[in-house]
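re the bet — no i am not wrong, look at it urself. input seq straight from the record:
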Amino acid sequence: MYQIFVVEDELLIRQSIRNMIENLSGPYAFCGEASDGEMALSMMQDLMPDILITDIRMPFLDGFELIRHVKAMMPWLKIIIISGFGEFEYAQKAISLGVDLYLLKPIRSPELAEAIESVAHQIEKNRSQNQFLPAGYDKDEVHIALHQHFMEQLLFGGADTGVLLERARSLDLDIVAPYYQVVLFGFDADSSQQRVLKTAILSILRDQNSPLYHISNSGQLTLLFCSGDLSQLSEDVYRLINIIRHELDPLGITATTVVGTVVERLSAIRDACSAANDIFKKVQTVSAGQLIDINDTAQLTAKIANFSSPFDDAFRHRLQQCASEDLPALLDEYLSQNHFGSMLMRYDALIDLLKITIHMISKTTPNADSKDIAAKLSSEYDLFAASAHRDSFRKLALELLQKAVSQRQDNPAVFRHTHVINRAMEYVQEHYCDPNISLIAVAKHVGMSSAHFSMIFSQTAGRSFINYLTALRLEKAKELLSTTDMLLSAIAMEIGYNEPNYFSHVFRKNVGMTPKEYRQQNQQDQYSR
């Protein structure tokens, strides 16, 4: 299956191209669209298409700049330009950037079909020869790029099992096994250590006849182990973990490691990776350097991995106003409304409370470094041990809240803007469905300059204004997806997004799945109750 992405600022033309692609016969799939290059770049990093169809003149980031960036990230990408400009200089520049075809508007369906079939043929030919057409890449670089593209689709989605098996065969990768296990690594290396780190990691993996691996742009390493024997699988996993940690120790680089659950289907790898990633993000934020095996926690399920903490914005608002003696009642109220039936759920909740505490302490401590505060609190409290039982869980939760509130009461001046931010949040909750709502508009509503409002909002709320607005919209979207049969386009408009595809992109980026997948999962959960 060849995934095709379209970038065109004219809505009618974009819809026309999309319709042409969807009506094509053959192994072609329309995977996304954007109205400008900047939006497209962000979406394509997630979708990893095979073919890009783009215009040249667009707002924010034009077609040539988009091509320059995506070629650096995805050297396998085949590019078709559809433009209203036929001047020689445009065609010449397109050739210099490695564009495969240059078509002139208006484009007809047979012409587009022929162009797509042509570049698809090139892709297939390159796969069989294990090489790319564009100059400047040697065979090793091409193999690594293909390998990483394949791993992104295997770990994060984007291709069905049949396509994955076909691509694995073309890369001489043996991925058929009874058992699979994902292991995630994050490293505390600064920018000056990144090159040394990557060299060391690749050297270790090469020397150890490594499992399949993927290295993200942020430097996160994901390993995929395949085995026919469970005990051997566990031995291989921990042997390589120990080697990596041991080899990086002399470099002064600490590794945070999460060992994912064992799965028995190729199609289940994506969910296992997503679940491990959820845990990894929380651990990496507040307690870097830990080694966590989520198979050791009791009864891990998809529901637990996607567990939402009760300590939301409403809880944070009340906490800012709460006196120390009222904390037990506040905590018990929230705990009574939620079920913490597993150790992992309790651990997840304690992580969120720790983050709230770190944020409140860093706001009230001049020149404090939140990383130092996190390190101190992480060493002071054993979150995993406290998560083992409900009583120890509640005790530590209360201790964390008391620490946060006592710090706030010692430094009341930093909370002088709380009432202003509460007014702003109330306004956003009433107007989030307005596509024109903005930081500037909300700042004006509370009588502040946008720059000042932006700063105190982030300090008080613990997140940026846009992150707060996005979270509010997505919570409403989840509710509508779970309780109605509304079209995705209607839901997007309902929560303030004029572009349904941009809504889908934001939803997937923040929730870890598409709106359609979220709706299907939620319906399955309801049927199973």
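see?? The chain is about 60% helix and 10% strand. told u. also The radius of gyration is 25 Å. so pay up
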